[in-house]
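Quick one: YndM family protein from Evansella tamaricis, structure tokens please.
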Amino acid sequence: MKHLQAFLIKYAFAVLVTLSALTILNASTAWVLAITLIVVVPAYLIGDLFLFPRFGHLIAGIADFGLYTLYFWFVVFGFIDMTATGFFAAVFTALSITFVEVFYHEFVISRMMNMRRYEPKPMLQKQLQTEFSEEIDPDIEKDPKK
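--- reply ---
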């Protein structure tokens, strides 16, 4: 149930940002709802459930930004607007969603789902020591009686 709530919160803010950015290009609301759903599912699975617990906010945010940028650029350029305006709309949408993702990761994923960043356990005692032996220094006599 917690995953469904987290997913719906992520989908809601992604739809809000995508609607505000892509309606400028005369995209229909049904189209925006569909393309947002298609991109949010892998973003949730890859970014929030796999990358965030292992690598933290920064890596998950970069991965989400890359995924959103490439996806929205493909969709906008291929289906809505084949000009530079479409590219900038895609980048603006990706930046806006990534900005909101920071708060989403902090409050929803970290607090509501109790997911924390995976911290590897430190090694036991980090006491390292070098060894010096006779074989390394040829000037030391092997038999001290001579």
